[in-house]
């Protein structure tokens, strides 16, 4: 699942002003993986977007990548 974690990091780092503050923590379960995304408080709006559209798009891309691994991925923005 390293590839999916790296994909999420790459997407978010391209969006934010402080890419060095982007941290992704991976919690692996039997059938699912939780990716906890942490960004600078100043960049939170850029990651979430208007009405959560960017966050939804990020989750969609990550879930599509996880289908190949037959895993369920949950992205939590903290």
From TrEMBL:
Q: Name one GO molecular function term.
A: RNA binding
Localization in the cell: Cytoplasm
Gene Ontology terms, cellular component aspect?
cytoplasm
Which Gene3D superfamilies does the record match to this protein?
A: 3.30.300.20
Q: Which InterPro entries does the entry mention? A: KH_dom-like_a/b, KH_sf_prok-type, KhpA
* Keyword entries, A-Z: Cell shape, Cell wall biogenesis/degradation, Chaperone, Cytoplasm, RNA-binding
Respond yes or no to whether keyword Cytoplasm is given for this record.
Answer: yes
| GO process terms (BP) | cell wall organization; peptidoglycan biosynthetic process; regulation of cell shape
Principal location class: cytoplasm
Question: Member of which family?
Answer: Belongs to the KhpA RNA-binding protein family.
* Protein task: A probable RNA chaperone. Forms a complex with KhpB which binds to cellular RNA and controls its expression. Plays a role in peptidoglycan (PG) homeostasis and cell length regulation.
| PANTHER family cross-referenced by the UniProt entry | RNA-BINDING PROTEIN KHPA, UPF0109 PROTEIN SCO5592
Q: How does it assemble?
A: Forms a complex with KhpB.
Q: Which NCBIfam families match?
A: PRK00468.1 (NF001748)
The entry's protein name is: RNA-binding protein KhpA
Specify the species. Answer: Clostridium acidisoli DSM 12555
Q: Which gene encodes it?
A: khpA
